[in-house]
Amino acid sequence: MRASDALRKVCIVGGGTAGWIAAALMAHHFKGKLFEIELVESDDIGTIGVGESTIPPFMELIARLEINEQEFVRATQASFKLGIEFEDWRRKGESYFHPFGSIGQPVELSEFYQCWLKARQAGQPFELMDFAPAAAMARNGRFMLPFKAQKTPIGGAAYALHVDAKRVAQFLRAHAEERGVTRTEGMVADVRLDDRGFVDTLVLKDGREVTADFFIDCSGFRALLIEKTLGVGYEDWSQWLFCDRAIAAQTRNVGPPRPYTLAQAQDYGWRWRIPLQHRTGNGHVFCSEFLSDDEATRILLDQVEGEVVAGPMVVPFKTGVRDKIWHRNVLSLGLASGFIEPLESTAIHLVYRGMDFFFRYLPDRNCDPRLAGEYNRRMTADYTEIRDFIVLHYCATQRNDTPFWRKCHDMELPDSLRERIELFRVNGVLREGHDELFRAVSWHSVLEGMGIHPASYHPLVDRIEEGWLFEGMSQVRAQLAQVAGTLPTHQEFIDAHCRAEAVDLR
């Protein structure tokens, strides 16, 4: 690459969580030595600000930015998250848990799940979650940082955070600006292209102009650059994911925050409960084919705990992904690049992942389309994997009490998901792709929770002496339950290590 071809300036259009994650990561990695970074946003344009539940890779992002975790938890009024409790998804009155971290430990050449399958087939009274340290802590309302207890039964757990999304954006803005990112307040009124069809200049409402070599579109569902300017289309996934709207509201806490997210199925969708230190985020995700906004709002407000302090707010969305997430000299991030409903809290992860791949395929000013092509292939694969995992929660339902759930049960599955399920049904073997987000623990938890079971277990398990195996599993289960019960409660841990200042919610 000739020096004259190097990127000299990158402009991020839009703030919010996505924009400031991008700005903070670039500021951290380039340290002012490669190119200038400018972020353009308008205080007159609101952000969605309801993506408040994260997954464990988010903790890697915090560490990567060299942010003090305790400081971040205090500043964002965060609480800890050990997984997701799913209620009423398979049948009304049933629940299951998707834990973070490990479930058991491999035994000789066999993964633990296969050993558990044999134990269940032999009539042993073991539940899969009996061996998941995150589930054991969540069940008891307890918490401890797993890396502080690596030689104990809870050492295999992992965790994420429930956060205040607006406070996250504020924190990352300060972090990025301290490291040289320029913030420009203004609303984009026009976009000019050069003779190659590349974005060249943003014209702001007050007449100021912002030029750059490369642009990152974080303008949310408006997709100002990637769609409205460059005309990139959108692959609609509503044939598999029927929910298209959400109602969001915030309430005062009633009791201490639980260390997990609740995802409770409703007649025409599901609702979330995300407990922070100072308040609780609530939402009702639903299918507008069967339910109006007013009805969905009433249902949510009838079920929330505590006084409503913000909202309700209606958030319409279309599940899918851009035909090209990166096109010419525009990379789209966050809602501008695609949207998968928040059932497994993947939105912030996809922003982080999108930037990670951008660093891998970092272009010069010519933006070689082969780099963009490989980026798009990898990111689209990530979106597709997550889509299939979310569809699994719906398609395996045995509920037939409403037209919505009958439609979910009867849907024609994506080939990639259908083939994965069919393989699993043989003896629990999973099809795992390259560098996927959801690994075996996640798939096992949801498949089992939704009632999809293998016909048998893997033959290699028969190498292990049965009596020894079952006795060992019984001891491990008892030890995990005993240790989890001795840990501090979630609230006690927060109070001792990272309690945030009280907030006036009026």
Number of helices: 14
CATH architecture assignment of the domain at 3-78 and 163-236 and 319-385: 3-Layer(bba) Sandwich
Q: How confident overall, as mean pLDDT?
A: 96
User: What is the CATH fold-level name of the domain at 3-78 and 163-236 and 319-385?
Assistant: FAD/NAD(P)-binding domain
Termini Cα gap: 56 Å
Beta-strand percent range? 15-25%
Shape: globular
Top CATH class of the domain at 3-78 and 163-236 and 319-385: Alpha Beta
Helix % is: 25-40%
Low-confidence stretches: none
| Number of β-strand runs | 21
Mind summarizing the main beta sheet? 7 strands, mixed
With strands numbered from the N-terminus, the spatial order across the biggest sheet is 5-4-14-15-16-13-17
Q: Any idea what the CATH superfamily of the domain at 3-78 and 163-236 and 319-385 is called?
A: FAD/NAD(P)-binding domain
Classification by helices and strands: alpha+beta
- Gyration radius from CA atoms, angstroms: 24 Å
